Amino acid sequence: MPFDPDAVREFERAGWNRAAATYETAFATATRQFIAPLLDAAMIDAGAKVLDLCCGPGFVGAAALGRGAIVTGLDFSPAMLAEARARCPAIAFRHGDAEAPPFDDACFDAVVSNFGIHHVPRPALALSGVHRILRHGGKFAFTIWAGHDENIAWKLVFDAVERFGDPRASAAPPPGGGFATAADCLRALHDAGFSRTEAELARGTWRHDDAAALLAALRAGTARMAAMIQAQTDAAMPEIVSGLEAATAPWRDGAGIAVPIACVIATGIRS
Ligand SMILES: C[S@@+](CC[C@H](N)C(=O)[O-])C[C@H]1O[C@@H](n2cnc3c(N)ncnc32)[C@H](O)[C@@H]1O
Fold first, then answer.
1. What is the architecture of the domain spanning 5-151+174-206+259-270?
2. What is the whole-number distance in angstroms between the Cα of residue 111 and the centre of ligand 1?
3. For residue range 105-150, what is the model confidence (pLDDT) as tens digits?
4. Hey, which of 1, 72, 219, 247 has its CA 20 to 30 A from 160?
5. Nearest residue (CA) to ligand 1, atom 25
6. Cβ-count burial of 34 within 10 angstroms (0-12 exposed, 13-18 middle, 19+ buried)?
7. How many whole angstroms from 250 Cα to the centroid of ligand 1?
């Protein structure tokens, strides 16, 4: 299937609309761990005009508001925006596409995006848009999931599906891609015109009762991984679960499993 940005956009939008109501309990337990380091990397402090790009239910924006920033949120999922507006009425949440952020030139001091950029069909357009709406000297900081050598929970899930199921079973259109490593982030930031670019690894752990709960969280709280898990046959699913249960054994303790997760935090300055 050839890359089709419109198909990716509609697939992602439908997926995030579906996930919105369960995102907080299912997936934000992973993504929220990286909000404070992301805001630190963007040097968010009181009075800064900040855009939370791909804001989802608004947890990043709410944390920036807590630091005294003046926050706007942008997302293209109406269901995510409804969650965000209900949670955080003090933030102006706007509907729009990250590929064409609907804001004036140079109107933000900082833009942050937590696990949003890699879902955008053409991330280079989003980065150019961010560059345009930042003031000179303004900072962009974003997170992506790290590669499987560091992001162990993802590796174990993909390995189990590869071994006992079919990772290509879903009808998801091929993603835009290009954002898997720190080097990818640095290159894309540079190409969009950012200077003083940096990328560093941040680590966390994702805790669940067992492997079935980890899979259920991804199924309820994500778009593309949810589609992959959903597409596995009834025959394959028990084997995937037991394969994942065995693979997560090294991270089991008295309370369940606590599997390492990791992301890249990338930053650049609008020169
Ligand atoms: C993994 S969630 C992250 C949400 C939030 N940033 C957080 O940290 O919890 C990805 C979000 O990106 C949004 N998104 C994906 N592609 C987008 C696009 N092209 N334009 C705007 N939002 C997009 C989705 O609707 C979803 O809310």
1. 3-Layer(aba) Sandwich (3.40)
2. 14
3. 999 999 999 999 999 999 999 999 999 999 999 999 999 999 999 9
4. 1
5. 77
6. buried
7. 32
Ligand 1 centre to CA of 117 (Å) is 8
Ligand 1 pocket residue status of 11, Cβ below 6 Å:
no
Checking phi first, is residue 257 left (phi over 0); if not, alpha (psi -120 to 50) or beta?
A: beta
Kindly state if the Cβ of 56 falls inside 6 Å of ligand 1.
yes
pLDDT at 97 > cutoff 80? yes
Distance 1 CA to ligand 1 centre (A): 24
DSSP secondary structure of 170-202? S-PPPP----SSHHHHHHHHHHTTEEEEEEEEE
Q: Do the strands 70-75 and 49-53 form a parallel or antiparallel pair, or are they unpaired?
A: parallel
Q: In this structure, what is the dihedral angle of CA atoms 74, 61, 203, 227, given to the nearest 10 degrees? A: -40
Taking Cα atoms as reference points, which of 129, 140, 120 lies closest to residue 44?
A: 140
